[in-house]
């Protein structure tokens, strides 16, 4: 072995110094050029093409990878035949030829590669390759789904007669992920494919639902990623379509919603409380029922549903329940999902006929409390059906006290939305129809005041005057005499 030889530097020191100076300037120029010329990483990375399922003319063959169990047969050479597992490094260990790299190849490509590898040793090897057990595939699902994450799915199915394989589609993976949320944009579902080349495939599941386009329900491959985007605008019709799809959630655990505004008991409610799973998603009107029902002053045309997307963005849907009541537009009764907030605003003015229609709605209370006080047989708080009129409330309270009541008119007190109280004098006519000017429909917490007649007021005042004296005639007897005289006068007239 020769030792390395070291020689002394015998060159001209001046020339060496010049060379060093030139080299230093060269390195400095290179450094200045490097720091002043930025390199764009985006320019060095090739763009990933975006296509639609219709652009995939012929489905790509299954590509082999670690975990696949293969059967390799060499014609008339049984000692070289057998079952072989693709190892984690993507290689296959075969007799005589040893390890060969097979990851990413199709079965036909592997067959050609094995044939070429055995040709030096076997004359006309004629190999055959088939998959005994395919490896499980790994699919990632993100975006507007109930349970985003990675899913490991076996392709082989148990069958005692013969081996069968099952390949998964986009909608099947969405079902595996618990179904899509109501905020999903099903027209722009993206499948990001890694194998054999990187592709972005845009799937329109709306075409599948409306036209039965099966090409949109793409067959997935190992390491595919499904991303379900959030819709720009949440549309009640689109939400109803999503809820009817087979890749919507089948069962949902009880969840919490918030409802505020013009309901009788605003607050937080657990929809489906006490149930293991909800057979179907609850709707806005069901949440209103849980909150005690809608108030008469509610603005049904501008109800707001606030919803948080999977990306953390707050979306608002305007709901018109008046369309539900008047035209039967069921799309307005939107299904709820966990974390929703319902805001019911106050109307500036509500016509009387709309109040009657609202009171008859399924999401209004069935009964209400009103007060009839003063000169009736049974004064006090009454629980009456919705749309009870003034005349009906007086009758429920036992009717007028004929000896003391002013039967000509009553006073109606009503609490306004701004906290003030309105007072209205109403003439009584028991022949009046529903919601006539003198027989209005009552609202919750209305107070009907039946005042004393003028004669009763005079008698009560006279009684107060005579009470300290005692008098020769009892006060009650005096009232009876006055009442009899009054009846005789009326009869004579």
From TrEMBL:
Membrane topology: Multi-pass membrane protein
Main subcellular location of this protein, as a coarse class: membrane
Positions of the Polysaccharide export protein N-terminal domain: 58-131
Alphabetically ordered keywords of this record: Cell outer membrane, Ion transport, Lipoprotein, Membrane, Palmitate, Polysaccharide transport, Porin, Signal, Sugar transport, Transmembrane, Transmembrane beta strand, Transport
Record has Transport as a keyword: yes
Subcellular location: Cell outer membrane
Ranges where the SLBB domain occurs: 140-228, 257-344
InterPro entries with a match to the protein in the record: Poly_export, Poly_export_N, SLBB_dom, Soluble_ligand-bd
Domain Soluble ligand binding: 369-421
Family classification: Belongs to the BexD/CtrA/VexA family.
Protein name: Polysaccharide export protein
Species whose genome carries this gene: Limnospira platensis NIES-46
